Amino acid sequence: MKRVYVNEEWCLGCHLCEYNCAFANSGLPDMVLALKGKPLYPRIHVEEGEKISYAVSCRHCEDPICVKSCIAGALSKNDGVIQIDREKCVSCFTCILVCPYGALAPGETGVMQKCELCLNNSRGEPACVAGCPNRAIVYEERGDAV
Q1: Which one in 25, 38, 46, 89 has a CA-CA gap of 20 to 30 Å to 19?
Q2: Which of 4-13, 96-105, 120-129 has the weakest average pLDDT?
Q3: What is the CA radius of gyration of the chain?
């Protein structure tokens, strides 16, 4: 299965992946209308250290503990992609607590959100990948399962 991978040695820490993600998931046709003067709620986020920056997003684990621990049954795995049913989510934050990668976060309304590979809003690849100026984020199939 194709997944988002980060080559941290190439990450500039520019946060453009966050902007592109937030825009792609806003449902609006114009980036300025979607983001200007508003808080961002991207499904990927950049962690910055002294010597390295890298983007963190869902790894779509083979055996996802977040799905097993969701008390509302809002998380499911469909064709290898972990997805959230926003109607079922009760914002208990259990998924945040159990995710070893820190890939889940509350969205604008408090309902959990995470990378779903832009399956509902993409043109072949996730928005974070398309918007990375240094190609630090890639969408590819690798032999290593998480």
Answers
A1: 89
A2: 120-129
A3: 15
Burial label for 91, CB within 10 Å (0-12, 13-18, 19+), is middle
Residue 17 has pLDDT above 90, yes or no: yes
Q: State the amino acid at position 4 in one-letter form.
A: V
Residues 6+ positions from 37 with CB-CB distance below 8 Å: none
pTM of the predicted structure, to 2 decimals: 0.90
Residue 105 phi, psi dihedral angles, 5° rounding: -155, 155
- Please report, for residues 26, 38, 72, 80, 111, the alpha-carbon distance to residue 32 in angstroms, rounded to integers and kept in the order given: 11, 10, 35, 33, 24
CATH topology of domain 2-141: Alpha-Beta Plaits (3.30.70)
The tokens for 15 are 């946060």
